């Protein structure tokens, strides 16, 4: 399945030691826990990976697509509301 560049998608981003303010200032992102974020973007996985890598200079980095907003518990306050405002789930 090919995804259009116009499609907004969720990604899970682990950015070890990254500048959290830079990440949140440049992307529609929410902090889930230390170094763990969700990003809502039209960028591809590769584009997001390289943008976070170059902007935030993390010690470790993982970018994984999410097919929908995840079910979770114990994440940062406001994270669930952030997902609900951006999804149809």
Summarize it:
The chain has 89 residues and is an alpha+beta fold. It has helices at 20-26, 45-56, 79-86, and strands at 9-16, 28-33, 36-41, 60-66.
What does this structure look like?
- With 89 residues, the chain is α+β, with helices and mostly antiparallel strands.
- Helices cover 30% and strands 30% of the residues.
- It is built from three helices and four strands.
- Strands 2-3-1-4 form a four-stranded antiparallel β-sheet, with helices on both faces.
- Strand 2 and strand 3 form a beta hairpin.
Largest sheet: 4 strands, antiparallel
Q: Which of globular, elongated, flat, extended, rod-shaped describes the shape?
A: globular
Number of helices: 3
Question: How large a portion of the residues is in β-strands, by DSSP E?
Answer: 25-35%
Distance between the termini: 21 Å
- Order of strands, main sheet, comes to 2-3-1-4
Secondary-structure element pattern, one letter each: EHEEHEH
Which stretches are low in confidence, meaning pLDDT under 50 for 5 or more residues running?
none
**Would you tell me the structural class of the helices and strands?**
alpha+beta
Determine Rg (CA atoms, Å): 12 Å
Annotation, overall tally of beta strands: 4
Average pLDDT for all residues? 90
**What is the helical fraction, as a range of percent?**
25-40%
């Amino acid at each position: 399945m090919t995804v259009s560049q116009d499609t907004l998608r969720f990604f899970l981003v682990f950015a070890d030691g990254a500048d959290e303010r830079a990440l949140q200032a440049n992307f529609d992102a929410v902090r889930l826990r230390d170094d763990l974020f969700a990003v809502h973007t039209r960028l591809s996985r590769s584009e997001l990976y390289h943008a976070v890598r170059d902007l935030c200079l993390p010690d470790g980095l993982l970018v994984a697509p999410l097919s929908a907003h995840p079910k979770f518990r114990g994440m940062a306050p406001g994270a669930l509301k952030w997902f609900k405002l951006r999804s149809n789930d």
